[in-house]
User: Which sequence fits this backbone?
């Protein structure tokens, strides 16, 4: 009796495999699935700019045992090289003339020489970001990008932060410091001199390298 029951169960299971299936919806007239490029125009804003997200722990930085929110493992060299380097360009006083403050949306006329430089860099494929305190306000970012477009430039990324991808900064207020030495370059122009107090023995200790001198500091390594 037990053998007959098992045989019947097996027969019923096999029959269910080959039984006619209930008819599903007719997909023969369904439109083809659009390719990604066809979906972009209909589902993304016209001014949308694609971006790539990079995970930190385990991708850009080595995954290490948890030691708190402020601890991050050493960088992964290969991933670090994949982050495209960029040049930071200050706005007011560098790319645009510094004018009396008239609000976050007012920007002075362009500085011709600097404008030509930035255009040449972009034509060569160099990544450029605008470094300005205006980036702390959304209106400042919008105004800066509109100003850039009016000068014949793309709506470049506007930021007030540097990251590991920044290789240099063009800024009328910056003082260039030789890495790991504390020494800095001192130009003859008033605008190239530090406004911060300096030590009484700075000149005697040759802590400044005068532009045009024979001093040849070692090539600095990349730093944040």
Assistant:
């Amino acid at each position: 009796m037990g053998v007959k029951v098992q045989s019947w169960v097996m027969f019923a299971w096999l029959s269910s495999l080959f039984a006619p299936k209930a008819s599903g919806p007719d997909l023969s007239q369904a439109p083809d699935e659009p390719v990604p490029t066809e979906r972009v125009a209909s589902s993304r804003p016209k001014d949308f700019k694609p971006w790539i997200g990079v995970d930190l722990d385990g991708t850009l930085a080595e995954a290490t045992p948890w030691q708190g929110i402020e601890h991050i493992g050493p960088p992964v060299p290969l991933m670090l090289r994949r982050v495209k380097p960029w040049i930071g360009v200050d706005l007011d006083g560098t790319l645009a003339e510094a004018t009396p403050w008239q609000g976050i949306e007012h920007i002075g006329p362009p500085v011709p020489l600097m404008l030509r430089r930035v255009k040449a860099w972009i034509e060569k494929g160099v990544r450029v970001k605008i470094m300005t305190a205006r980036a702390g306000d959304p209106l400042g970012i919008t105004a800066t990008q509109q100003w850039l477009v009016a000068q014949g430039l793309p709506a470049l990324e506007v930021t007030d932060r540097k990251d590991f991808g920044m290789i240099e900064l063009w800024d009328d207020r910056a003082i260039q410091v030789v890495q790991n030495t504390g020494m800095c370059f001192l130009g003859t122009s008033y605008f190239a001199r530090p406004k911060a107090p300096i030590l009484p023995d700075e000149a005697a200790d040759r802590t400044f390298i005068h532009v045009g001198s024979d001093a040849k500091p070692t090539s600095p390594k990349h730093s944040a």
User: Anything to note?
Assistant: Residues 200 and 207 are 11 Å apart (CA to CA). The beta strands are 86-90, 128-131, 157-159, 166-170, 184-186, 208-210.
